[in-house]
Structures are given as structure tokens and as C-alpha cells.
Amino acid sequence: MASQTVNGKAFEYALLTEFYERLKNITSVSITKNEPYITAKGFFESFKEQEQETFNITASASINFLIDIEPRLSNGINEDDILVLELVSDQAGQTGDVRDVLIIRSLQKWEIGISAKNNHRAVKHSRLSQKINFGKKWLGASCSQDYFEEIKPVFDMLTDLRDSDKSIKWSSIENMHEVVYIPILNAFKKELLRLDKENPNIVAENLVQYLIGNQDSYKVIKGNKKVEIQAYNLHGTLNLPFEKVKPKAKIPKLKLPSRLIDIVYQENSTTTLLVSLNEGWQISFRIHNASSRVEPSLKFDINLVSAPYTLFTNHIFVNG
Known about the structure:
This protein has 320 residues and is of the alpha+beta class.
């Protein structure tokens, strides 16, 4: 996880500085040198020159494309219309804002955000425990008492194990999948279906918004010699023209789901549930223990398996 964070932050820094370099001669632009900026700069500078170059080239390729589809990046009303570039603190993610890089023109009352990913596609890493009310936290609809009673024996057992031996490892639990993962996943599945049934039209939409963020944003995923750009245009605030300057490509609005269709185990898996929703959304929830030592909490690796055809995606190949 540590190297994932370091790589991710270094890539955010590269995006910010490449935006600045690319736009400083075209429009008024400034960088907010806040704490997240200083942290990211430190991570970026910890890489060798060749690796820094790869970050920069990848960032530069994605920025050229974003400038084409976001005319307001390079067009200001006048010299006072400053384009402000800033990195967001990690705290924002807890409130459903997944954006890492913010680009703001306050004079135009306009901003866009970018979520920067380095070689990984997981959308969220969320925990389950006896205390976590995932319904309330993710969906705005509280979990039932039945759910907490169903998961209690498993988490009580894990608590007892940990209390009896602080250094006990997960590997010492026999049939772990049968006694830990499957009961928890079954309870989670049952509760998600109940929440959807009792809160029609709300749960499916809120689940996707929890995962992809509640603000419109671009996701820039740095891969090996390529970069992928996805546009999550939920509210229609991306891809706006500037006066008579129109974007060079059209980004459709993304349709959120309104209902949950089904939840099944992934084939030959005891750790992963596939949640299918209408409008072409499918999400996988893979449960795992976050550390090697036993603790009364489990983690989900949550991925978008499929998205609607209206999700705008562009792949750019990069030399470097």
C-alpha cells in the first residue's frame, strides 16, 4: 500500500506541474503550495530522474487531451481570471469526493477535478466490522439490527482470538473462508438486497456515487506505456464550452443506476461478490484481511467491473 500511495502522490504532483508548464504561457495560472502539494513534491523527488521523466511524459499526454476537451483550461476572460491548480487532502475522500487534483477558475465559477491512479483500478478500499454501519456510511440508509446480529458471532470470535494472542495470524484459523469470509459476505449480500428493497431508487444510485465520487471528475490511470482517461460526467459539469470555443470531443452524461438486479458470488470464488445494477453497472466486492494478524475487521477491495456505454474512455499510448 505504501508504494501505491507514494506512486499515486508522485503522479498527482507530475499532473499539477505539467498543467502549469503547459498553460503558463497561454493563460494566468497559479499553484497552491499547500500541505498535500509539499507531500506529493517530496514523493516525486524521491524517484530517480528516469522515473520522474516517465511520470511527466504520462501526465503531459493526458493533459494535451484534457486541454482539447476542456476549453476553459486554456481560456480565461481576462488577466484576473486565474486558473488555480491545487492538490486535495486525503480527508476529502471520506466525504465522497474522490478528486485528487482540483483546477479552479473562480471568476468563471468553474472547476474540474481529476482522480489520479497509478497502475491500479480499485475504486475503494472499505472496511466491515461490528461497529461499521456500511448502509449509513455508503448509502445514507441504516443497516438493520438483524445484520449486526448476524455478523456478531464472527467478529466476536475474531475479537476473542486477538485478545487471547495479540500476534495470532489469520493463517492459524482453519477453514477461514467457511468460518469468516462466507458468513460475512452472506450477511452483507442479504443486507444490501434488503436496503435496496426498502429504499427503492436510492441504494443503487448512492452505491455507485459512493464508489466513483459524488462530484463530476476525470479519472487518469497511469499504466505501463499508456494512460487511460475516464470521464465521470454525472451532473453535466464536464466538457463545457468557453464562449465560442467548443470542446474537440463530446462527453455524454453518465446514467446512474436506479435498481439493484442481483448479487452473486464470482465463479469459483468464496471471497468475491458481483453486484449487478441496471444501466450497465457491475461492481465486484472482494473481501480480505487487511493485515497478517487477526483483527475484528475485514477489508473490501471494490472494483468497477463494467460501466454503461456512456462512460467516456480514452486510451493514449506513451513513449517513455
